[in-house]
Amino acid sequence: MKNSSSYTAIAYLFLAPALILMGLFTFWPVGYNAYLAFNDYSIADATATWNNFAHFKYLYEEDLFHSALKNSLLFLLVVPVIQVSALLVAKLVNNKLPAMTFFRAAYYIPVITAISIAGVVWLNVYKYDGILTWFLQSLGLIDEQVNWLGEPKIAIYMVMIFTFWKGIGYYMVLYLAGLQSIPTEVEEAAILDGANAWQRFWKITVPMVKPTILLCTLLSTIAALKSFQEVVVLTRGQADTYTALYYVYAQAFTNFNFGRAAAAGLVVTFFCVLLAVLQFRFFGEKK
Amino acid sequence: MRLKPTLAVAAAVFAMSAANVLAADPVKVEYWSNSLSPKFDSTMKDITAKFNKSQTGIEAVWVDVPWDAFQAKVVAAVASGSVPGLVNLPKPWMDQFAQQKMLVPITKQVAGFKNVYTSGALQDVTYNGEVYGLPWYQVTAVLFYNKSLLAKAGVKEAPKSFADLLKAARLIKEKTGVAGFSPKLNDGFAGWFLYEGLPVVQNGKAVFNSPAHVKMVEDFKKAYADGVFPKDAFKMQFEDQIAAFGSQKIAMFGEGAHALKRTQTDSPKVYAQTGVAGFPEAKGKTPFGGFLFLWSVPKGYKNVDAAVKLGQYLTNDENQLAFAKASATFPSTNKALDDAYFKAGANSKDPIEQATGVAAAAIKTSRTLTISGLPDEAAMNKKMNDELEAAITGQKPVKKALDEAVAFWNSKFSGK
Asked: What span, in angstroms and rounded, lies between the C-alpha atoms of A96 and A171?
């Protein structure tokens, strides 16, 4: 007979390969990043010196970081939109109709397209004499050409639309998995009880995919706060689209101030954790 | 007995390995080029093999590192103390690394041969009075113009000064409706001030809000407002300018000769009517668009002399010429630039060859126009560029924008 401690040991043995890899490539860098955030790090001497929260004090005063953080938080607007849309799209492509596989694939293609290539395409969409301007002009909605990524008032929303296009397929697939785990009997029973499609969506589908909603909202919140690549490929931080992670990157690889970059990264992490806690409160299982 | 042959073999092996130990191992100098593989593999392998053949004490080992990974890899190498002998940096990165004390000054080592390089290149590799690099290949902008658009606008010859350039661009816009000139603005504006000979920082203070600076930015603003510059001038990168020129959306732009290769294939009609002239020099006495690559020794490298020796070899006349020919760039030594290869282009009818000839004449004075040694380069450059963009695109009065950027810079300088 095996006792419980040997079961635990075996469990850890199975976990070990993944844990070692994660420890090396995830936990250790995260821990070291936190350590650097409280130190002045010199690359040339490879020394870190405690600096009495100097980086955090600097960030507290730094307007550029504040506006970058504001833009990252503004990016959260994309979360509810992408979640509702992804769920609706998942619901649509979950129908047993011809050509559904085609639609599923079509929605997923942007996810697997390299962001640099997608960026080049979208730069042409957003060009002042590009496809978007042409389309809106031909519908008679605008008269003048618009520099979509050059106007500080609208540029960040244009980047969000790109993020939406790039990400919706990913969440759609997760929701699709969630939807397919709903037993058909429940829906059939609701139909017999006279529930219409709208009622079935809100009273059955949404509650039953709640765990998926939590997962997807959490993932997209983190992705929104981490928005960086889309900004690099579309605006390079111009026109008030500079985000918090762009700031982190610039501090690390333009200024080589790894301590300050680590501190800014930690502040972003703090917001991620805060929002995750809130989301668990809202969507988590209440016991 | 079977033991004897075994013993004999063992003795022979021992003798050979002892001989190996006694013969001093050559010093291995690893050197990292920047994004040259696979296009220039044969040139680099050839140069490396020739160097190794000519040396007994040093063995060069060539490694190519992609552009995106380069800075991070150098940083990681210096931080870990396991560095290559030479790294191939563009001038702005050299300044940043030198500022962080991540490079070894090689002023003494190059004193005996530094005069082989052009004066512009030598100035580029000097940071705070110390030499931090061996100049290698470089590019500089020449002015490409659409002959038929210029003719339609009544512009008889290529502009000789920047003021002429703006005038011609305005005429083109007025007469043809096409944006006359696309200035390179996506990398920031500081280079334009330097091109015009206007100081950006003096005695540790930002000074780019003087009446002369305001006047220059006002000129850009007017040109932008009137459509003389394209609407997305701040977003246009290398390939965007080429595409706009090829589709006749701009009449003039400044770039290296290599830029025309795409016009040649994608827009042969425009290519046939492309004229080439030297990019007009302004008060900064240098063309716009110069960019130098060089070899630096990272901090922590033990055999600095061996690394410099390899660097000297890589950047000598013969090897620079070989690389320049392979890559359609320019060498940074005086003698290599005087080679007949570059002179031949000046009389050619082909725009690319012509551009090569024109650029070779201009490149000896060419500098990489960049501001270095800033206490918070990322934030300061961003502030300057944001304010300049707001001013030129008419979102903010020019003087106000420059004052705000200068105040920001000076607050950073005082907090240094």
From this structure: 20
Interface test with B, best of A59, A234, A255 (most B CBs within 10 A): A255
Alpha helices (runs of H) in B61-161, residue ranges in sequence order = 67-80, 91-99, 107-110, 119-124, 147-152
Return the structure tokens found at A250: 């610039």
Domains of chain A: 54-283 (1.10.3720.10)
Contact (Cβ atoms closer than 8 angstroms) between residue A41 and residue A263: no
Contact B253, B181 (CB under 8 A): yes
Cβ <8 Å between B379 and A62: yes
The amino acid at residue B408 is F
Q: Do A44 and B299 touch (CB under 8 A)?
A: yes
**Element at B58 (helix H, strand E):** strand B58-65
SS (H, E, C) A86-140: HHHHHHHHCCCCCCHHHHHHHHHHHHHCCHHHHHHHHHHHHCCCCHHHHHHHHCC
Q: Distance from CA of residue A213 to its chain's centroid?
A: 14
First to last CA, chain A: 35
**How far is the CA of A3 from the CAs of A14, A223, B216, in angstroms?**
17, 43, 82
* Alpha-carbon distance B224 to nearest alpha carbon in chain A (angstroms): 13
Q: A243 vs chain B: nearest CA distance in angstroms?
A: 13
Size of the A and B interface in Cβ pairs below 8 Å: 66
What pLDDT, in 10s, does the model give residues A82-123? 999 999 999 999 988 888 889 999 999 999 999 999 999 999
ipTM of predicted complex: 0.81
Number of Cβ atoms within 10 Å of the Cβ of B54:
9
Structural domains of chain B in order of their starting residue, each with its CATH number: 26-139+290-356 (3.40.190.10), 142-289+368-414 (3.40.190.10)
Say yes or no for a CB contact (<8 Å) between B78 and A44.
yes
CB contact under 8 A, A242 and B382: yes
Pairing of the two strands B130-131 and B126-127: antiparallel
| CA A109 remoteness from chain centre | 17
Question: CA B56, B57, B58 angle in degrees (round to 5)?
Answer: 100
Residues of B with CB under 8 A from a CB of A: 71-72, 75, 78-81, 96, 100-102, 186, 231-232, 234-235, 299, 376-379, 381-383, 385-386, 389-390, 393, 395
The set of residues, in sequence order, having a beta carbon less than 8 Å from that of B327 and lying 6+ positions away, is: B39, B40, B43, B137
Contact criterion met (CB < 8 Å) for B81 and A44: no
Indicate yes or no: pTM above 0.80.
yes
Distance from CA of B102 to the nearest CA of A (A): 5
Contacts with A255 from chain B: Cβ below 8 Å = 376-379
The pLDDT tens digits for B265-323 are 899 999 999 999 889 988 888 888 889 999 999 999 999 999 999 999 999 999 999 99
